[in-house]
Amino acid sequence: MNTTISNFASDNTVGVHPEILNAIISVNNGSAVAYGEDEYTKKADKKFQEHFGKNAEAFFVFNGTAANVIGLMGLTESFHSVICADIAHINSSECNAVERFTGCKLLTVPSADGKITVDQVKENMHVLGEQHHAQPKVISITQPTELGIVYTPKEIKTLADFAHKHNMFLHMDGARLANAAVKLGVKLRETTVDAGVDVLSFGGTKNGIMYGEAVVFFDKKLSRNFKYVRKQGMQLASKMRYISTQFIALLSNDLWHKNAEHANKMAKYLEKRLKEIPKIKLTQRVETNGVFATVPPRCISLINKKYFIYTWNEKISEVRLMTSFDTKKEDIDNFADYLKKVVN
Fold first, then answer.
1. Of 191, 209, 235, 280, nearest in space to 11 by CA
2. pLDDT > 90 in the chain, percent
3. Using a CB cutoff of 8 Å and minimum separation of 24, what contacts does 278-283 make?
4. 96: how many CB neighbours lie within 10 A of its CB?
């Protein structure tokens, strides 16, 4: 299958940015100290501090599910609960990993766009101090949400202030944080640590790296035992330099910003082209690099004969289309022209 075409199914399907590949090659000569004690991992740590402040401490892991799960493990005990949106990735797309490995209960609130509010969180707070119920300890949000919608720093700060007032933490799933920061026109820290986030799952795979994510703590008191949590969680890479060097490249020379900016621009162009097709209806605002739309049900199988697209909600025939750092206008034009033929 053409990898450029499959790009629209997910930003996980695309290749690796050339600068990231070069970074991997550059550390492939000779040997280096294992388990994160190498010079590249130390340099990567400094890069995270440049972007998130001197108190930021990054722990590299293999994938996003691991970042979310063990990040939450670092904040909770088994009698706690985590409050999140019903469509949050930790609830809908991680095969119950959070509940299995943390022992915590997920308390979900309904959301039309993936965002949650303090008023919704409050509905789960009446059990505080009641020994028969899991105790709320973490509010988890996704930035941008699973539907591509962005929280403003003010909205995040409101949630963080509420959490801290009640001796809770705010966790952020930032698999596509770069896209959100570009949309907001802010630095990475402005929508995270400056807004009160305690722990961040920072994504790289969807923004051009080969593999690897980072769990970032903004208070070293919270991370004092996390190296043991990561090891127990089977996420301590022996040849860690191959992960950390990717983040050095991503966080240097604004590569993270360039990649996300291009992906966002391509999503807006895809939105424009889809609006030209009357039988396709957009279902969400296009704020980052995801486009959600309904297509005639009979057309899904026809489209999939030539292009792989992802069905988000089968009941309403809603599909999710993702753009990435290497999406080209030509790809979008060819795709849109084909959709016109299929749906008409």
1. 209
2. 93
3. 279/343, 279/344, 280/339, 280/343, 283/316, 283/318
4. 10
Does residue 206 form part of some domain?
Answer: yes
Q: What are phi and psi of 64, to 5 degrees?
A: -70, -40
DSSP for 140-162, please give it: EEESS-TTSPPPPHHHHHHHHHH
Residues 265 and 314 in one domain: yes
Backbone angles phi, psi at 108, to 5 degrees: -105, 150
User: Could you give the CA distance from residue 59 to residue 108 in angstroms, rounded to a whole number?
Assistant: 27
Would you say the C-alpha torsion 68, 74, 75, 76 has a positive or negative sign? positive
Domain count, the chain: 2
Helix (H, G, I), strand (E, B) or coil at 208: coil
Tell me which residue of 219, 176, 213, 212 sits closest to 197, measured CA to CA: 219
Most distant CA pair in the chain, distance: 60
Q: Say yes or no: 269 and 220 in one domain.
A: no
User: What would the mean pLDDT of 213-234 be, rounded to a whole number?
Assistant: 97
Angle at 247 between CA 243 and CA 250, to 5 degrees: 140
Taking the model in full, what pTM does it have? 0.96
Q: Is 37 exposed, middle or buried (0-12, 13-18, 19+ CB in 10 A)?
A: exposed
Q: pLDDT tens for residues 17-65?
A: 999 999 999 999 999 999 999 999 999 999 999 999 999 999 999 999 9
244 pLDDT higher than 90: yes
Strand 281-282 with 290-294, pairing: antiparallel
Here the CATH number for the domain that contains residue 94 is 3.40.640.10
173 - beta bridge partners? 142, 201
Q: Which of 243, 196, 240, 190 is nearest to 218 (CA)?
A: 196
Quote the mean pLDDT of the chain.
95
Q: Is 141 inside any structural domain?
A: yes
Model pLDDT, residue 1? 41
Whole-number Å distance between alpha carbons of 103 and 224: 21
User: How far is C-alpha 2 from the geometric centre of its chain's CA atoms?
Assistant: 25
Distance CA 158, CA 119 (A): 11
Q: Which domain holds residue 337?
A: 3-13+255-343
